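anyone seen this seq b4? input:
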Amino acid sequence: MVGKVLLYVSSVAGSGEIRAHQQRIRMVLESKKINFEEVDIASVDGSKETMRDLAKDPQALPPRIAYEDEKGNKEYVGDFEAFEEAVEDGTLQKFLKVA
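predicted toks r here
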């Protein structure tokens, strides 16, 4: 079994910028056929704390990206800015740890 990309989002994001960033990440992942699981921090108990723990930032806001290996271990990958940088550099697969 192979690991997966976790996309932490919020279905009740008050910021248009956050909603736009979440949509941009979804669009890129889907267009590149990268398998991912969306985790809605507004509806999944404990997921906001998990996201913030992974990011090592008690104030972290979505979207945030993590990688979960086949054993369930999660590793923080980055935020929207890091994602966009990887897209621009052509290193998205490596960035997401799915290369």
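The beta strands are 4-9, 36-40, 64-68, 74-79. The first strand starts at residue 4 and ends at 9. kinda curious what u guys think
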